[in-house]
Amino acid sequence: MRTIKPIKLGSYKTDISEPLTAAEMGKLWAAYMGNSMGICILSYFLKHVDDKDIKTLLENALTLSEGFLKEIEDIFKKENFFPPKGFSLEEDVNLGAPRLFQDEYYPHYLKYISKAGLSIYSIAIPLVYRKDIKEFFTNCIISTIELMDQIKEILMNKGLINKPPIIPVPDKPDFVTNDFLNGFFGHVRPLHALEITHFYDNIENNVTSKALITAFAQVVKDERIRKLFEKGREMTAENVQQYMQMLQDASLPAPSLLDDLITTTTFSPFSDKIMLFHKMDMFSMKIRAFGNSVAVNGRHDVGYLYTKSFLKIGKFVEDAAKLMIENGWMEHPPIAPERGQ
User: Name one Pfam family in it (predicted).
Assistant: First the structure.
């Protein structure tokens, strides 16, 4: 592969003595919250795992989260930046609680949260300028990609997942015709590769999310949060069914449900706070995924399906945020000064 030519300019604007920008603060804050949550979840999973390969995978993921959190804390300390409270092993997880998931669920969960991490880190790269912050997020991406490779290897080798569908290889350039956008009327073309990709990805995300919210609804203590989780579970189930139907109509396979990997325990290993935050965060990630899906879509019926999903999930995130605020659990990201009267 050809590499680009180096440019040696140098700028004091990228020096580590420069103050943090809003983008640098915001992305560090988000990474701190996500990894402090991840440490709690992964520490509990490690108390209930028998498969030695999956255990090593969980240990690797926990090591990364702990390392990322420590690096962010060091940056915050240099900047006199008071870190968010986030989540802790003392307040937000009961490591002695009974098993909530079978081992086979863990690699699927790790794949989901690794996607979320890569999303935060990759979006940060074009927006951060200070050398140490850029290097931090670059290292986060490299480490998370290495973890993702291990996750996919375990999922495939243990027969826990099927790769995305196979379609014919093009034998010549092809250009769209007038029916390219049709979805409800007239001749409807087959799904193209990018539409298939995002349906597969959204199904994969949603079956993982559905299993997690089903488990959380089973153990959560607050009845209002339980009802919200049940609503989110039904919404997710509907989305999964619709996306799977799109692939099935094209005679293409789809990922399988994971609900059978949940145990029957009703004893909660997690605080209501961390479970509500986690699901609010996961549903927010779905909104981003739907935006990416719509951006590469052509058919009207596919766009309409994602738009409906977007609106419903936006309402779930809003309702979750209201409960977080009412309980005094929702931390404020760094904020601009109030200039008005």
Answer: DUF3231
As a CATH number, domain 193-326 is: 1.20.1260.10
Rg of the chain taking only CA atoms, in angstroms: 22
Model confidence at 112: pLDDT above 80: yes
Residue type at 117 in one-letter notation: G
CA distance 33 to 329: 12
% of the chain at pLDDT higher than 90 = 89
Instruction: Report helix, strand or coil for 218.
Output: helix
Burial of residue 230 (CB within 10 Å: 0-12, 13-18, 19+) is: middle
Determine how many CB atoms are found less than 10 A away from the CB of residue 190: 12
Q: Phi and psi at residue 224, in whole multiples of 5°?
A: -65, -40
d(C-alpha 27, C-alpha 25), whole Å:
6
The pLDDT value given to residue 287: 85
The C-alpha angle 157, 161, 162, rounded to 5 degrees, equals 100
Closest CA to 109 of 199, 44, 28: 44
Contact 299, 182 (CB under 8 A): yes
Q: Where are the domains of the chain?
A: 19-157, 193-326
Residue pLDDT, tens place only, 270-280: 999 999 999 99
Residue ranges in 79-130 assigned as alpha helix (H)? 105-124
47 in Cβ contact with 101 (< 8 Å): no
What integer pLDDT is reported at residue 296 of this predicted model?
Answer: 85
Tokens of 242: 């619709």
Does the domain spanning 19-157 belong to CATH 3.40.50.980?
no
pLDDT at 290 over 90: no
**Mean pLDDT for the stretch of residues 223-231:** 98
Instruction: State how far Cα 140 lies from the chain centre.
Output: 15
Query: What are the residues facing 101 on neighbouring strands?
Result: 262
